[in-house]
Automatic annotation (TrEMBL):
PANTHER family, sorted: PHOSPHOTRIESTERASE-RELATED (PTHR10819), PHOSPHOTRIESTERASE-RELATED PROTEIN (PTHR10819:SF3)
InterPro entries found in the cross-reference section: Metal_Hydrolase, Phosphotriesterase
This protein's UniProt keywords: Hydrolase, Metal-binding
Pfam name, any one: PTE
Cofactor remark: Binds 2 divalent metal cations per subunit.
Residues that, per the record, bind Zn(2+) 1: 22, 24, 144, 263
Hydrolase recorded as keyword: yes
Protein name: Phosphotriesterase
């Protein structure tokens, strides 16, 4: 058992309960909001988030892991307002989300660059993990990076290596946004391992976007957890295919290598909210409890399988 930092204080890993392993609360660029969203109502948006998240304990969910980091609009004071009003553990992350370039704040500063200093990203990630994020008093519980179909660009590689190094030094687990259609989970595993990260403490996110079970088994056989974490995004892969893929992996004995989630959010400024509801009506925090778990059980999964994916695997993610 280990202490896991949450927005409202540390909890024992044994008390995390049922965990959705990849959910956002707000994906909201603050610079964009302040300059171009004149209709933003802070109190109303917080109240909407509270209403959505407050329903989760009644659906059997006790904890969410929120991998909103630099590049996705991480802003802890807003999340703290929400967390104070819900009976839910919220674990936040540190890292950088980019598919291409490094943010300009780090473009010229780092090993071998114009301002040649040790990697500042690693230092900042470690500070978030050990001291806290800004002046909020909230410590990050895990690390986040991304690799998309653009591949291992110099910016992506630099972030990934900094994340791997921070994990190796701190023991903190990692979640990686990947594109399974390009095999990028295997690329991420190679880079993170080169930096000393323990692959058993890595979730290869968005693995559920593919039905290529052989690829998924290769990722899992290297030790990592498979993020079957986009339930509700049926435009990327239909519901039936997502369920069938999880069932096939269970049949092959990979229950201890999967975690579940939606990659949903209360608010995301990438899409018009009404258009989002029309195109992906089931992309919300309730979908797994209301639709996915019944479908898995009907398809042959056992309650032990469900508990393994929702309780045991997230707990060991922090304990290993």
């Amino acid at each position: 058992m280990v202490a896991v930092p949450t927005v409202t204080g540390s909890v024992d890993s044994a008390d995390l309960g049922r965990v959705l392993a990849h959910e956002h609360i707000f994906v909201l660029g603050e610079e964009y909001r302040q300059n171009f969203q004149a209709d933003w109502d802070e109190d109303a948006k917080v109240a909407e988030a509270v209403a959505e998240l407050a329903a989760l304990p009644g659906l059997g969910i006790d904890t969410i892991l929120d991998p909103t980091v630099l590049g996705l609009g991480r802003y802890l004071p807003r999340v703290q307002r929400v967390a104070a009003q819900v009976d839910l553990n919220i674990v936040v992350a540190t890292g950088v989300y980019t598919y291409n370039e490094i943010p300009f704040q780090f473009h010229y500063t780092g090993p071998g660059l114009l301002f040649d200093v040790p990697e500042p990203l690693t230092e900042l990630f470690l500070k978030d993990l050990t001291e806290g994020i800004a002046d909020t008093g909230v410590r990050a519980g895990f690390l986040k990076c991304a690799i998309e179909e653009q591949g291992l660009t110099p910016g992506v590689e630099r972030v990934m290596r900094a994340v791997g190094a921070a994990s190796a030094q701190s023991g903190a687990p990692i979640t990686v946004h990947t594109n399974p259609h390009t095999g990028s989970g295997l690329v991420a595993q190679k880079v993170l391992a080169e930096e000393g990260a323990d692959l058993t403490k890595v979730v290869i996110g968005h693995s559920g976007d593919t039905t290529d079970v052989d690829y998924l088994c290769a990722v899992a056989d290297a030790g990592s957890l498979l993020g079957m974490d986009r339930f509700g995004l049926d435009v990327l892969l239909p519901f039936e295919d997502r369920v069938a893929t999880v069932l096939e992996l269970l049949r092959r004995g990979y229950a201890e290598r999967m975690v579940l989630a939606h990659d949903a959010s209360c608010f995301i400024d990438w899409f018009d909210p009404e258009a989002k509801r029309q195109v992906v009506p089931r992309w919300n925090y309730r979908h797994i409890s209301e639709d996915v778990l019944p479908a898995l059980l009907e398809g042959g999964a056992t309650q032990d399988d469900i508990d393994t994916m929702l309780v045991h695997n997230p707990r060991t993610y922090f304990e290993r």
